[in-house]
TrEMBL record:
<feature type="domain" description="HTH tetR-type">
    <location>
        <begin position="19"/>
        <end position="79"/>
    </location>
</feature>
<keyword id="KW-0238">DNA-binding</keyword>
<feature type="region of interest" description="Disordered">
    <location>
        <begin position="1"/>
        <end position="20"/>
    </location>
</feature>
<protein>
    <submittedName>
        <fullName>TetR family regulatory protein</fullName>
    </submittedName>
</protein>
<dbReference type="Pfam" id="PF00440">
    <property type="entry name" value="TetR_N"/>
</dbReference>
<dbReference type="InterPro" id="IPR050109">
    <property type="entry name" value="HTH-type_TetR-like_transc_reg"/>
</dbReference>
<dbReference type="InterPro" id="IPR001647">
    <property type="entry name" value="HTH_TetR"/>
</dbReference>
<dbReference type="InterPro" id="IPR009057">
    <property type="entry name" value="Homeodomain-like_sf"/>
</dbReference>
<dbReference type="InterPro" id="IPR036271">
    <property type="entry name" value="Tet_transcr_reg_TetR-rel_C_sf"/>
</dbReference>
<feature type="DNA-binding region" description="H-T-H motif">
    <location>
        <begin position="42"/>
        <end position="61"/>
    </location>
</feature>
<dbReference type="Pfam" id="PF17926">
    <property type="entry name" value="TetR_C_21"/>
</dbReference>
<dbReference type="InterPro" id="IPR041467">
    <property type="entry name" value="Sco4008_C"/>
</dbReference>
């Protein structure tokens, strides 16, 4: 059932906050999918972690695969909203993206599970595809203005920037001392700067 109810002190049914329950389920699903992938994830563990009825997962999200898609879409949307893209300052963008991925380790884990189990060609979040196309267009426009060199085509330059920004993340960077992380961040920014230096 999709309506959660409990009893008030007077015994009357009380509607719980469905949005709060969905948020708890999404957080629990994020942790579960990031750790176990799609095949290894278990709906009963997600429901237990969220302190919700297992049936609500299916009522709100459909099946496990649809829940994973919702989780991935949610995290992609947050990244795009919180890390503004700047074609004229790709080194600065690389530094901000490095910081975001460091603070949100689930982001790349979810993307990796997606590539392994779904396949990037089968279903990418539409918002991500639109963003990649849009940002490549912004780089192309910056190249036309002369603020970004034309050594690489826009799509390649975008992919190189994204790859450099995330290069240290799979190695559990949170276990590294802050000074080491700062050094890697500086190196990422410098590498992207050299890509766009005339």
């Amino acid at each position: 059932m999709s309506n959660e109810k409990s009893r008030q002190p007077d015994g009357k049914p009380r509607q719980r906050d469905a949005e709060a329950t969905k948020a708890r389920l999404l957080q629990a699903a994020t942790d579960e999918f990031a750790t176990h992938g799609i095949a290894g994830a278990r709906i009963d563990r997600i429901a237990a972690a969220a302190k919700a009825n297992k049936a609500l997962v299916y009522a709100y999200f459909g099946n496990k695969e649809a829940l994973f898609e919702t989780v991935l879409d949610t995290h992609v949307g947050r990244l795009l909203a919180e890390v503004p893209f700047t074609a004229d300052d790709l080194p600065g963008y690389a530094g901000r993206l490095f910081d975001y991925l460091l603070a949100h380790p689930h982001q790349l884990r979810l993307a990796t599970w997606h590539r392994l189990e779904v396949g990037a060609g089968k279903r990418n979040p539409a918002e991500l595809n639109d963003s990649l196309e849009h940002n490549a267009g912004l780089i192309g426009a910056a190249q036309d203005r002369g603020s970004v060199p034309t050594t690489f085509n826009p799509a390649d330059l975008l992919v190189f920037t994204l790859a450099l920004s995330s290069a240290w993340m799979p190695g559990s960077p949170t276990a590294m001392p802050r000074a080491v992380l700062d050094g890697h961040r500086t190196a990422v920014i410098e590498a992207v700067r050299r890509l766009v230096t005339k």
